[in-house]
Amino acid sequence: MTTKIFCSSSLLKSSGVRHDAVRCLLRDLYKSSTNNIANGSGQQYQKIDLKLKFFELSFNVMMSLSTGEAIIGDGLCHSTEEYKWFFELLKNAYVPSFFMAPGDYLPIFKYFDVFKVERSLAEIDKKRDAFLEAIIERFRKEHNVNNIEKKKKKRSNNKSLLDVLFSLQREDSEQYNDLIIKTMILTMFTAGTDTSAMTLEWAMSLLLNHPEVLKKALYELDNNIEPHRFIEDSDLSNLPYIQSIIQETLRLYPLAPFLIPHEAAHECKVGQYEVPSGTIVVANVWAIHRDPKVWPEPDKFVPERFLQSSAGENKSGQFNKFIPFGVGRRGCPGGGLATRVIALTLASVLRCFEWEKINNGDEAIDMSEEVQFLLPKAKALEALCKPRPQMLNALSQA
């Protein structure tokens, strides 16, 4: 399953999905600026809620990859109440999970549900299940037995997760029942939407607070991409500084400060600690990424640390100290997809628009963290943007 969805060949085939989502974001940002022109105010900076925009983009990518449907952007945003509800649910997916359910620790409290956590989660689960059930049924009707061959030819080069899952269900309906399919779709959304959006928000916040880094990024983009054209997936390998910005962002603000807990199958030794069989072990990624023993000036934003050093050391030596997606067989299978979405989006918005902090740039962007399962910004990022002159023509035709 993982191989079919996240392998290199599948990621290459799905590049069109990422391009469409990014192009939709660029059109949206451009339309905001053209509203000023229509009002006679000229090409001025427009305030943008980047937290929302990046979340919409990630949601669109996940929806397209999972179901083949794209519903955000170009006037389709909030097209139906069910999509609007699911979109809002995902925006707050990890908030309820942070609050402690007393009944998990003292069973007697299950009868009281003092904080109404269990009741709230039960209601959310019921609505969420109905939404996913509707997606599956709609997909099943559109891909009934009479249309299978026709759809195969049409979609053979760009299969969604549902295409793969229904193909597997036809081979083994017991193993791949509807419950498994709904769980897989939900996992794609919850694991892939918030995470990419948060990283993009952190990256833009860091760049706005470090204009010298932003200047270097623009220099790399303008010197490696032909004038007046949009960035493609194939360009990303020629943008090492952009990649290093993303890596440094993930180092300072990893997607999840703690990896998913693992149970020791056998007695083993972790560092200087003896770990008995059956012990739950949790890796503190945040602490590893800011360990002064392995990272010089660990709290500073220095993308250059991920570029090849003068001593000839490169990223290969950073395998065990840089683990934003985990490591080994239990690492996040969607890491490759996430890095592609983040890189294409970040490079595109920097390439096409000029960015400034609000309030004439007098105040630094607030980099406070919110305490949740993931690591979001405590204060949503808002910034000013306007099209770069050299990209005006391309944006007007996007």
Q: Can you walk through the features of this model?
A:
With 398 residues, the chain is mainly alpha-helical. It has one domain (2-396): Orthogonal Bundle (Cytochrome p450). It is 50% helix and 6% strand. It is built from 15 helices and 7 strands. It has helices at 2-6, 8-13, 15-38, 50-67, 81-91, 95-98, 117-142, 148-155, 161-171, 178-209, 211-224, 240-252, 285-289, 335-352, 392-396, and strands spanning 46-49, 262-263, 268-270, 273-275, 280-281, 353-356, 382-387. A 3-stranded antiparallel sheet has the order 1-7-6. A hairpin with a 2-residue loop joins strand 3 and strand 4. Helix 3 (15-38) packs antiparallel against helix 4 (50-67), helix 3 (15-38) runs parallel beside helix 14 (335-352) and helix 10 (178-209) crosses helix 12. The longest helix has 32 residues, at 178-209. The two termini are 35 Å apart. The relative contact order is 0.15.
